[in-house]
Amino acid sequence: MKGFVFHGPGQASWQDVPDPAIKDPADAIVQVGVVTICGTDLHILAGDVPEVPQGTVLGHEAVGEVVEVGSDVRSVRPGDRVLLSCITSCGRCRSCRDGSYGQCRGGGGWVLGHLIDGSQAEYVRVPCADLSVYPLPGTVSGADAVLLADVFPTSYEVGVLNGHVRPGDTVAVVGAGPIGLAAIVTAGLFSPERIIAVDLVPARLQAARRLGADAVADVREEPCQLVDDLTGGLGADVVIEAVGAADSFELCTRMVRPGGHVANIGVHGGPATLHLEDLWIRDVTITTGLVDTFSTPTLLRMAAAGRLPTGQLVTHTFPLAQMEEAYDVFSKAAETGALKVVLGEEPHAEVAVPAA
Q: What are phi and psi for residue 256, nearest 5 degrees?
């Protein structure tokens, strides 16, 4: 089969790789129908996630059809159409029993495309299949569903829920890429007074408005002043960091009100300064986290009911074999207008991105 293989920082290729096989009775083999590329994959290629071994097939988000299951698998069978979670859960360890599936100590957590071969391939082995794949209703397209593998649960859990967004809040989202846009959508479920999006790229700010932002700001044009103007100088109740850069994290800590929350979602490849000399007296709560995907069933029901506009984030579609071209488009998002790129046999109708 073919897969997209990581060969070290800046090096990857779509190439022949061995077919996956059942290694454990809890495994399932899934034929990939639809897959997408995550910003975390770009961090891996940039060398920001050094624990990824060279030779690993990348990817942790997919929709596909089960073709084989181990003897212990009970929840799915060959022929079932399923969503692959970005997080694998053993269901038995202390972390899983607490609902912290991302911290699984039983061989799970974020393993696909990280510690084992992932989903950017024609077939993928999924460990702990009973708790790590979700049967899909026929009403949800593959391109809509694949954004529920990571993007929407991450934004909702690590951004909105960790940030304790409440009705009437002012929410600022720094970074209007796919994660930031999904945070805007899911923050809107809690009826905040306003949502403010901050980014460098005009097309992304326009997408943020389309998906629910009430105000937008270019990061180069004093976004802190806009937040102050809209809140009477108080600051935002919740600030969500969706970039993964030191400057954006420090900007978030300047935007938040005393007693507010900074929810960091971004994957940081280097250190960021924590200005405790300013923050210690302001009662600010800062959270970080890897998604647990406990919200996936809820989000999937909402998508099936037409209550979650996941497909509106998809801007480009490709055949699976054009993985290298898709990476090129996604990595040059400022030039291409790419939000989410989807590859496979169930492409979503392409959504036009407003011109910059």
A: -80, 145
